[in-house]
Design brief:
The chain is of the alpha+beta class. It is about 50% helix and about 20% strand. It folds into 5 domains: about 190 residues, GAF domain (Beta-Lactamase), CATH 3.30.450; about 130 residues, Beta-Lactamase; about 140 residues, Beta-Lactamase, CATH 3.30.450; about 160 residues, Beta-Lactamase; about 170 residues, Heat Shock Protein 90, CATH 3.30.565. The protein has a 6-stranded antiparallel β-sheet, sandwiched between helices. A hairpin with a 2-residue loop joins strand 5 and strand 6. The two termini are about 65 Å apart.
C-alpha cells in the first residue's frame, strides 16, 4: 500500500483531463465490484467490462479468451468489444492454440504480457500468425485465474498502430482482471453449490424412497405392494422409461414380477415368457452373485453379444442400470432401470440409488421370508394339532385320511396329496385310496401300481421310518421303470413317508409337486414326518378297535360268555373315555375308575417309572375302605414291578405295561386285596388293551405339549423379530439423518470459507482506495465542480465512515456461520470414533441449534423459551452420536407437546370468543453431577399425558400421534440407548395439561464387560 503512495508523491502534477480519466477508471473498478456483488450473470459482467476497458484505454479491441481445460492450451474467445471495421475474433466459434506452453506457465504465475510492437516482440510463428490475422499491432494480456488455476485471458489489442503502454494503464488493467477473477470464482462457486444442492436433493429423494421401503418392512408386509411402490418411486426419481424387478428360477431362468413404465411402452410383466439368458445360466448369476452392479450407457456400443442385444431389444431398451437383489447370501433377482427413448450416461449417484434400493429389497425379502416361515410353522403346528385331535375323536379311518390329505395339500401348496395302500396278497402292488388333487391334474385314485424295484431299494428304508424327499426326479439316478410310474401321475418332485401298522409297512403318504421342481424345506419334511406318524397311530388305533369289535362279536355269538361280551362293551366305552380328553390327569382318573368297575376289583393304579427305574404311583382308584397309594416320594423297593417277575407277585395282583412308542413308560396295576383271585386270560387281555390305549394317549399328549411349546417359542421369536425390526428402522433413519447433517455442514463450509477468505483482500483494496482518496484531498483540496457534485451526490463522507463497519458486520456473519457448521458437525459426530469422552453440554447445544427453528416465534405462536441450568460436569465416556439422538427425540417431543398445548388453548379461547391471554411456553434443561453419575433433566410445561399413556411410552411402535406422523420408535430407542448401551437409567413423570419431565442418569465412566 505504501509503495503506491510513494509513486503518487514522485509523479508530476496531473492535468485535469488525466485526473478525470483516472477517476473514471477507479469508478469503473467500483462499478465492476458492485455488479459482482449484485450477482449479475458472468456473461453480462464480461460484456460490460470489455466495453468499459476499450473506451477508457482508447484501444481497438478488448476480448476475453477461455481455455478448454486447465491442462489444455486451446480455447476460444467468448466476449469481445471492437472498433467497427475490424475482423471479430469470435467468428464461427474458432478454436485457437493461443499461447505456447512456456507462456502458459508464465500466466499461471499471475504475470502480465505487454507487447508494444508484435514485429519486434519474441513471439512464436503460431502466435504471430493469429495476431497478424486480426491486425493486432500492440497488446496487453492479463491472466484470469480460478482458485490458482489458469481459467482464461483478458486481451487488449491496439490495431491501428504500435503503442508504448503506460505503467498506470497496466496497473489499472491488472485491477480490472482481479475483479473479473473474483466474478469467475464466485460464478464457479455458485455453480458448484447448485450441483451439490441438486445432488443433496437427489440423495434426500433417495433416502425418502429407502425410508418408505423400511416403513413397509416394519408394517404387516405385502411384498407385491412393496414391489409396485418401489418400482414406481425409482422410475419417477430417476426419470427412467421403465423400472422392473426380475426374479430367478432354480435353473437361472427367470421372469419379471413387477414393473413401472411410462406411457407408450409395451409391458414385460405377464407378457414375456420365461426368459433364458444363456450367460446368466452358464455363470449361475454372473457378477450379480458377487453383489456387483451392471451399467450400460449404449447397448450397441458396450460390446454385448448379439443374443443379449436381441433380448434387450425385446424390452425396448437402449440403456440400462441394474443391481442385484440378495436374499441373505442367495441371489434372488435383479432390479433394473431402463432408458428406452435414447441412450443415457448413468451417473454414479443414480447407480448408487438402484444399488441401495436393491439392498433394501433384499432386507424386505429376508424379513418377509422370516415372517412367512414363522406363520407357516404356526399353521403346520395347528394342522398337526387338528390331526391329533381328529384321530382321538373319530373311529372313522376314511374321514381321518380324506380330511388330512385335503388340509396338507392346502398347507404345503402342492399339486397332489394321496394315501397309497399296499395289497398284502400281492408283492408290493397297491393303489391310491384317498387323495386331494389340483384341478389341472388327473386323479390317481384306483390306479394299480407295481414297482419291481420297490422291494429292493425303498421298502427296507420305509420300514425303518425313513422319509424320501426328491427335488427333481430327473436329477436322480432312477431307473426308467420308476420314472414311468412317476410320469404317469405327472410328478416332478415329491415327498414320500411310510404308514406303519403293527410295525409293518401298510402304505405311503405321498406329496406330489407336478408343475415344476421344488426344493423341500426341512420344516416341510419334518411336518410330513409328524403327519405320517399320527396317521400310523390312527392305523394302529383302528387295528385295536377292529380287534375289540371282533372279540365283541365272537363273545356275542357264545351265550355262555355273555359276561365277557359285556366287559368288551365296557372296554370300548373306557377307550372312548380315554379319547375324549387331551389332559393326562383327567385320562388317568377316568381310566382307573372305569377299569376298576370293569374288572370288579378293589383297586386300580397307574405306576410311572423314572430314568433310574425307581418310580411312583400317579393315579389311583380304590374302594372307600382302602387307603390311597399315590405318594410324592419315589418308590425304591419295587423290584417286582421294575423287573416284571410274575413269580414274586401275589396271586391277587396283576399288571400290564404302558409303552410310549418303544419306551416302557409305566404299569397299569389291578389289585384284589381282601381275598386271593385267579386272573382270567380274558381279564389280562382287556387290561393290556387299556394299557395300549393309555400308551397312545400319553404319546399324543406329549406330542401336543411339544407342539404347544413350539408355538409359544414361535410367538416369542416373532416378538424378538419385531424388536430387531424396530432397531433396524431407527438405525437406518438416524444413519441417513447423520449423513445428511454432516453433508450439509460440509457443503456450507466450502462457500463460507471462500467468502471469509476474500474479505481480507477486499479490506486491503478499500484501504488502498481510501489512502489514494486522502492523498487526493490533501493535494487537490478544491476539486473540479463536476467531481465535487459526484462526491456530494454519493455522500462520500458517509461511505468512508460506514464502509469499515459494513466489512466488520460481514466478517461477524461469516464467523457465525462457521460456528453453526461446527455445531452441525458436533451433532453428527461423523469424524469421531463411536465411543469416547465428550462434553455433554456441547451435544445439548448442538441439538438446540439444529432444532432452533422449532422454538422460534412465527405468526401468533410466541415461541418457546429455553431455560438452561448447566452444572460443572466432567468429560463423560459415551457414544456421542447416540446420546445426541436421545436429546433430539426428547426435545422434539417437548416441542410437539408445547405446540399441542398452544393450539388447544387457542381453539378454546376462539370458541369462547375471549381474548387469548399470554401463554408461557418453556423448556428447562438442568444438568448436574450426582456421585459418579451425570444427571440430565429435560422438562416442559406442554400438554402432558395420562398415566396409562406414560406407562406405555417405552413400548415399541406405541404412539399417540396421528397415522403417518409418528412411528412409535423414538422413546423405545432412547430407552435402549440409555439403559442397554450406557448402563444408565431413564424415567418419565407427567401430568395432563401440566407438562412432562424426563430424567436421565448415566455413569461418568463405563465399566468394561
Amino acid at each position: 500500500m505504501y509503495s503506491h503512495i510513494t509513486e503518487i508523491q514522485n509523479k508530476p502534477t496531473l492535468s485535469t483531463a488525466e485526473l478525470q480519466k483516472q477517476l473514471q477508471q477507479e469508478r469503473a473498478c467500483t462499478d465492476l465490484m458492485s455488479q459482482i456483488g449484485e450477482s449479475s450473470s458472468l456473461k453480462t459482467i464480461f460484456q460490460t467490462t470489455v466495453h468499459q476497458i476499450r473506451e477508457l484505454l482508447d484501444v481497438n479491441r478488448v476480448a476475453i479468451f477461455q481455455f478448454n481445460s486447465t491442462l489444455d492450451s486451446t480455447g476460444e474467445f467468448i466476449c469481445e468489444a471492437l472498433t467497427s471495421g475490424l475482423p471479430s475474433m469470435m467468428t464461427q466459434n474458432l478454436q485457437y492454440d493461443y499461447v505456447e506452453e512456456q507462456w502458459r506457465v508464465y500466466f499461471q504465475q499471475s504475470q502480465i504480457q505487454t507487447i508494444a510492437d508484435i514485429h519486434t516482440a519474441d513471439l512464436s510463428e503460431n502466435q504471430w500468425a493469429v495476431l497478424a490475422q486480426f491486425q493486432v499491432q500492440a497488446s496487453i494480456v492479463v491472466p484470469l485465474l480460478n482458485h490458482q488455476q489458469l481459467w482464461g485471458l483478458l486481451c487488449i489489442h491496439q490495431c491501428n498502430e504500435t503503442r508504448n503502454w503506460q505503467e498506470s494503464e497496466i496497473e489499472w488493467v491488472r485491477k480490472m482482471a482481479a475483479c473479473l477473477t473474483i466474478a469467475i470464482q464466485q460464478t464457479e462457486s455458485f455453480k458448484q453449490i447448485q450441483r451439490q444442492s441438486t445432488q443433496l436433493t437427489q440423495i434426500t429423494q433417495r433416502d425418502q424412497v429407502i425410508s418408505q421401503i423400511v416403513e413397509k418392512i416394519r408394517s404387516p408386509l405385502n411384498i407385491d405392494a412393496l414391489f409396485e411402490e418401489v418400482t414406481q418411486n425409482i422410475r419417477q426419481l430417476l426419470e427412467a422409461d421403465r423400472v422392473a424387478i426380475f426374479r430367478f428360477n432354480l435353473d437361472w431362468t427367470g421372469e419379471f414380477v413387477t414393473e413401472s413404465l411410462t406411457e407408450g411402452w409395451t409391458p414385460v410383466v405377464g407378457v414375456q415368457p420365461v426368459i433364458q439368458d444363456t450367460y446368466l445360466q452358464q455363470t449361475q448369476g454372473g457378477c450379480y452373485v458377487k453383489g456387483q452392479t451392471f451399467i450400460v450407457n449404449d447397448i450397441y456400443q458396450a460390446g454385448l453379444s448379439d443374443c443379449h442385444i436381441k433380448l434387450l431389444e425385446q424390452f425396448e431398451a437402449k440403456s440400462f442400470a441394474t443391481a442385484p437383489i440378495l436374499q441373505g447370501n442367495q441371489l434372488w433377482g435383479i432390479i433394473a432401470a431402463y432408458q428406452n427413448r435414447s441412450t443415457r450416461i448413468w451417473q454414479s449417484h443414480e447407480v448408487e440409488i438402484v444399488n441401495q434400493i436393491g439392498q433394501q429389497i433384499g432386507i424386505a425379502l429376508r424379513h418377509h421370508e422370516t415372517l412367512s416361515k414363522a406363520e407357516y410353522k404356526a399353521e403346520q403346528q395347528k394342522a398337526l394339532t387338528d390331526v391329533i385331535t381328529r384321530i382321538r375323536k373319530s373311529w372313522d379311518l376314511g374321514t381321518i385320511f380324506q380330511t388330512t390329505v385335503t388340509e396338507v395339500r392346502q398347507l404345503l401348496k402342492v399339486d397332489r396329496v394321496g394315501i397309497f395302500r399296499f395289497d398284502p396278497e400281492h408283492n408290493w402292488e397297491g393303489e391310491f385310496i384317498y387323495e386331494d388333487v389340483a384341478t389341472n391334474y388327473s386323479s390317481a385314485l384306483e390306479e394299480k401300481v407295481y414297482d419291481h424295484c420297490f422291494s429292493k431299494k425303498f421298502a427296507p428304508l420305509y420300514c425303518q421310518g425313513r422319509i424320501n424327499a426328491i427335488d427333481d426326479i430327473y436329477q436322480q439316478d432312477f431307473k426308467d421303470c420308476y420314472l414311468q410310474i412317476l410320469e404317469q401321475f405327472q410328478v416332478r418332485a415329491n415327498v414320500v413317508a411310510p404308514l406303519l401298522r403293527d410295525n409293518q409297512l401298510w402304505g405311503l403318504l405321498c406329496i406330489h409337486q407336478c408343475v415344476s421342481p421344488r426344493h423341500w424345506q426341512d420344516s416341510e419334511i419334518e411336518f410330513v414326518r409328524q403327519i405320517s406318524e399320527q396317521l400310523s397311530v390312527a392305523l394302529n388305533q383302528d387295528l385295536y378297535y377292529q380287534q375289540v369289535k371282533t372279540q365283541a362279536i365272537q363273545l356275542a355269538e357264545v351265550s355262555e360268555r355273555e359276561k365277557s361280551m359285556k366287559r368288551q362293551k365296557l372296554l370300548s366305552a373306557t377307550i372312548d373315555k380315554i379319547r375324549q380328553s387331551l389332559e393326562l390327569k383327567t385320562i388317568f382318573k377316568s381310566t382307573t375308575q372305569a377299569v376298576r368297575e370293569l374288572l370288579k376289583v378293589e383297586r386300580v393304579a397307574i405306576y410311572q417309572f423314572n430314568a433310574d427305574w425307581t418310580g411312583k404311583f400317579v393315579a389311583d382308584s380304590f374302594q372307600d375302605d382302602w387307603n390311597p397309594v399315590i405318594s410324592s416320594q419315589p418308590l425304591t423297593d419295587s423290584n417286582s414291578l421294575a423287573t416284571g417277575n410274575h413269580d414274586e407277585l401275589p396271586r391277587h395282583e396283576t399288571f400290564v405295561p404302558i409303552s410310549q412308542g418303544e419306551k416302557l413308560w409305566g404299569l397299569l396295576v389291578a389289585y384284589q386285596n381282601s381275598q386271593p383271585r385267579f386272573w382270567q386270560k380274558e381279564e389280562v387281555n382287556l387290561l393290556a388293551q387299556v394299557g395300549v390305549q393309555l400308551g397312545i394317549a400319553i404319546q399324543q399328549a406329549e406330542l401336543l405339549e411339544k407342539t404347544q411349546r413350539q408355538a409359544t417359542e414361535l410367538a416369542q421369536a416373532l416378538t424378538e423379530l419385531k424388536q430387531t425390526q424396530a432397531q433396524l428402522i431407527q438405525g437406518e433413519k438416524m444413519a441417513s439423518l447423520g449423513q445428511l447433517v454432516a453433508g450439509v455442514a460440509h457443503e456450507i463450509n466450502n462457500p463460507v470459507n471462500f467468502i471469509y477468505g476474500n474479505l481480507n483482500y477486499i479490506q486491503e483494496y478499500i484501504e488502498n482506495l481510501l489512502a489514494i482518496f486522502n492523498l487526493y484531498q490533501k493535494y487537490y483540496p478544491n476539486p473540479q465542480p463536476e467531481i465535487q457534485d459526484q462526491m456530494e451526490e454519493h455522500d462520500l463522507e458517509f461511505i468512508l465512515e460506514d464502509l469499515p463497519k459494513t466489512l466488520n458486520s460481514m466478517k461477524m456473519g461469516a464467523e457465525r456461520i462457521c460456528e453453526i457448521v461446527l455445531s452441525l458437525r458436533n451433532f453428527s459426530r461423523k469424524d469421531e470414533s463411536e465411543f469416547k469422552q465428550v462434553n455433554i453440554h456441547e451435544g445439548l447445544e448442538s441439538t438446540l441449534l439444529i432444532l432452533g427453528n422449532r422454538f422460534k416465534q412465527h405468526g401468533n405462536y410466541p415461541g418457546v423459551k429455553i431455560i438452561k441450568k448447566y452444572g460443572d460436569l466432567p468429560l463423560v465416556e459415551c457414544y456421542p452420536a447416540q446420546l445426541n439422538q436421545v436429546f433430539m427425540n426428547l426435545l422434539s417431543n417437548s416441542a410437539d407437546a408445547i405446540e399441542e398445548k398452544f393450539k388447544t388453548l387457542t381453539q378454546q379461547h376462539s370458541e369462547a370468543d375471549k381474548k387469548q391471554p399470554k401463554i408461557p411456553l418453556n423448556i428447562w434443561i438442568i444438568t448436574l453431577l450426582v456421585g459418579d453419575k451425570v444427571s440430565i433433566k429435560i422438562s416442559d410445561n406442554g400438554i402432558g399425558m395420562s398415566e396409562n399413556t406414560r406407562q406405555r411410552i417405552f413400548d415399541p411402535f406405541f404412539t399417540t400421534k396421528a397415522v403417518g406422523q409418528g412411528t412409535g420408535l423414538g422413546l423405545p430407542i432412547c430407552y435402549q440407548i440409555i439403559v442397554e448401551k450406557h448402563k444408565g437409567h431413564i424415567q418419565c413423570s407427567s401430568q395432563p395439561n401440566q407438562g412432562t419431565e424426563f430424567l436421565i442418569e448415566i455413569p461418568v465412566r463405563q465399566c468394561c464387560d
